[in-house]
Queue: 4 jobs
Job 1
Amino acid sequence: MVLFTCKSEPKPDFTTMECNDPPVPIIKQCSETLSTTANRLKTADPGWKYGKRTSETNRVAVECNFYKKVTNSGIFRHKQHLIGTCKDVTRCEQCSNAVREEMNKYVDEKKEQKRQALL
């Protein structure tokens, strides 16, 4: 079952079910909203300066700009690759110390923000 909604303003009169716009699936509207939110979040994370998404279909695959390694676990795993302290992730040997410090500082700040939110 596909639900439909009307995009026109003012809201349609549901007693007569009249609307000037063709019906648009709600699922399509939600996916458009999610994609714009994802793009906004993508640019806010400093990990995206040093990596890029490899395909639109695989949203968790990130390729390192230095090492050309593809991590299939998202931007957090990519940042661990850049920092190089996690034992489960290959360290990026071509990454500069300044980038490592930037990523480590960002990850530590986020951890502290989450810890403070839980208190």
Job 2
Amino acid sequence: MTTQATELETVQQAMKQTKDKRMHERYQAVSLFLQGYTYAQITKIVGRNEKTVGEYVRAYLFFFSFFGNLNLCQIRAVNASWPIFSSFVI
């Protein structure tokens, strides 16, 4: 399985598990981005402007470039230790 496929699977799993509507929307936007959708296409699907979608994707890309591919338990641990990521992470 490729890294991108693993990332997509992780994001989709998090999207299914969250009960927070805002987080679901963020995960959905990132999931669509990882599937190859453009920002313009994602904005129409999630109902946010391109700037907002870009912020969601940039936060995701920064997080995973900084921490690498983590499983959901590790992501939760990072979130507890690094509150700066709490706007994106589980």
Job 3
Amino acid sequence: MTDADHDAPLLAGAELDHVEVFVPDRAAAAAWYARVLGLRPIARWAHWATPRGPLMLGAGGAMIALFERTPCAARDGVEHHRVALRVGAAAFRAFVARAASGPVYDAAGAPLAELTPVDHGQAHSVYFCDPWGNRCEVTTYEPQESRPDSQE
């Protein structure tokens, strides 16, 4: 191995494959993720959806692997921080406009009446939880176009 091999990024060209999410009721979670985020079961991976295996949901390249287990938020010291999905400006505006009808929740489990985008300068994001306390984010790197009064 040469020095040049060490300088090359080990994961050059890699993309995020999936995030594992633990829920107590996989069918109810699949319905919520379909209704709120538009993620649907992926037929190619349906054979994995055994009692201990994941139900793979996706839209485009983003996938979530739903496991029927005790949610991370309910287990001491075990959690992932957040599932973040990136979308374009038009999809971001549409999501913000209709997300509360999902419904989506705050960290305490109360339904949110609306989502308020957070301006990170080069990105806009909204934060919420699923019904099982898993933290979620939808973000866009098209902040100028993601404002409610803008159009693409």
Job 4
Amino acid sequence: MRAFIVSVNKVAWEAIEDALTRPTIIAANGITCLKERSKYTDVERRACHENSQALNAIFGGVDLDQLKVIFVCEFAKEAWTILKNQHEGNDVIRMSKLLILTNRFENLKMFENKTISEFYARLCEISNRLFALISAFLMIKWRRPKILLLSSWMS
């Protein structure tokens, strides 16, 4: 999905990472209010447009069931977080997946009745999933020796 959004517009992906919020102003009485769209600066308009591009790419890249869950989202980051949690789970679930995949990798064997291509496909599947999970953990600065060992093996 990330590649799809970047292909639409690299800045659209940055809109997800930067987590756009609605522009606000401080009223005369000191209360913070949402800014009217007609008073947006060019930078704020561009940021809203990039958020719309990212949100449109996300909406176009999911099936109908997922779209029903994220359709009410106004910001791309919000929709992305919902989808990420739906697919990857929270940190506890990710850690469990990581341990399961690590175990599958450590116990990987080639059987006599399988071809090298089939073994290689299994190896790629496990290593790609491990790499994706490890990348997610390293982004949140999770530190665990086995994860760091695997990440150094992957690079």
